[in-house]
Every structure is written in structure tokens, then in C-alpha cells.
Amino acid sequence: GEALAVSARVAPLGSRLVLLLVEDLTEARRIEAVRRDFVANVSHELKTPVGALSLLSEAVMDASDDPEAVERFAGRMQIEATRLTNLVQELIDLSRVQNDDPLEDAEPVRVDELVAEAIDRCRHQAGAKQITMAAAGHVDLAVWGNRGQLAAALGNLVENAVNYSPARTRVGIAARRVTAPGGDMIEVAVTDQGIGITDKDKERIFERFYRVDPARSRATGGTGLGLAIVKHVAASHGGEVTVWSSEGQGSTFTLRLPEAGAARDRAHQRPDLD
Ligand code: ADP
Q1: Is the CB of 157 under 6 A from ligand 1?
Q2: 10-residue block means of pLDDT along the chain (274 residues)?
Q3: Measured CA distances, 229 to 120, 149, 232 (Å)
Q4: Basic and acidic residues bias located where (predicted)?
């Protein structure tokens, strides 16, 4: 109604202006809806483990004369507490990458160090599933950015590759330099032989809390925030993240970031250009 009233008043000014105004209102409403959804999602995600903890603590009290039951319930409490901790930590990470300018303390960050850190972070999970992790290609490259954020981004991609793959498969990480008009970029590709992602889901997996299979995500400690964090980190570094996938065959997530030397050259050139 509001949008229509506005468009009726400005109609004589031309249809392009009308279109812009209507688009503006629609965009503002969309942003508001996304914000509301996010708050609702966070509340729901927090409620689930808190509710489970509350029920389990009652169960522990009722079972006080059955040590085996107490142990079982306590074990499940630990799982829920871990889930809650992961969620809160990822919410903090997400808010950091959304609010902090990563380039404020940017530095050259070696890709081989990021790769080693990411592999290290997943070593336990990968070992349990006998998944082989291998770094290939030219990892002796450096990107320009915030070390902590870059480590979180690559770590999330490798963690997902392990989580969404069956046992005894392979996760590969490869890096290469690609020439781009604005300066060289580095591409770090994480390839798995996992369950894959449909074309329809590919469009949505980078949204906060979107999961293809919520039960599977939760079972592996997933929060549904990982790829949203990756996307933010990539964008705020002047890069991007893309996905290629074939259902049942596997996926490749590619993180594209400014090369350290190229980014530094650009920064040095800036005063001259002004
Ligand atoms: P989660 O914590 O659930 O892993 P993410 O934001 O990291 O959240 O990923 C969102 C969803 O995208 C996952 O729940 C999963 O359905 C899908 N996904 C992410 N990475 C992969 C992958 N390598 N292979 C298959 N599906 C994936």
C-alpha cells in the first residue's frame, strides 16, 4: 500500500524513479525480514540445547540411585554443552567478521601455514573416518589479510569437507596464483569426495543457519554458520568463495583472495592515484 501510494505521487517524474523507490522499499523490507529471521533462528538454536540440558539434569536427579543411567545422561549433557559452546563461539566469530575491518591489521599470510593449520584442526575427525588429507599444488604463496579470519575461513571449508564425506575418502587442498585485472589473486580449492550439493541448495548454503540436512549437520557439531563466515571473510578481503559440486560425487569450494604482493603494490599505489 505504502509503496503504491509513493509510486502514484511520483509517477509523473518517470517510471525509472518509481521503480527505484519501489525497489528501495522492497530492499529495506527484505533486510528487516532477514534480521528478524536471524534473531528467531538464534533463539531457536539456543533453545534446543538449553532445553535438552534442562531435561537431562532432571533425569540425572531422578536416576541418582542408578550410576549407569547417571553416567549416560551426563555424557549426553556434555554433548549438548559442547553444542552450545560451538554455537556461541560461531556467533561471536560471525559478529567479528561482520563488524571488524579485516584489512586494518592485514599482513601477508602464507598459504602453507593456513593449510597446515586447517588440516591440524580436522586431524582428529579425519583420523576417526580414515579420511586422507593432502595439500597439493603451489602452497608456497601468500595472501593479503587478517590471519585469524583467513584461518577461520579455510578451517571451516576443510572441516565441512571432512564432515560431509564418507569414510576412507580423500580431501585435497590445492592453491594456485591466477592473473586478474586488478592484481594477481590466489585460489585455494578444497575438494572432497563427499555427498555433494544440489544446484538448488548451492544457492542457499552460504545463508546463516541454512543446512541441507539439519540432523546430519547437528550430528557432526555443525551450527549452520560456517559458510556464512567464509563468505563474509572472502568478501571483506576483496575476494569471493564459489562452489562446484556434483551430487554423490563430491564438492570443491574455492576461496579466491588477493595475492600478498599484488595487494601491497595496490596499497602503495593508492596515494599516487589520489
Ligand atoms: P554446518 O555447520 O551445518 O556445516 P555450514 O554453513 O558450514 O554449516 O554449511 C551449511 C550446509 O552446507 C551444511 O549443513 C551442509 O548441508 C552443506 N555443506 C557444506 N559443506 C559441504 C560439503 N563439503 N559437502 C556437502 N555439503 C556441504
Answers
A1: no
A2: 53 70 84 89 93 96 93 95 93 92 92 96 96 85 95 96 97 94 93 97 94 87 93 96 96 97 61 43
A3: 20, 9, 5
A4: 262-273
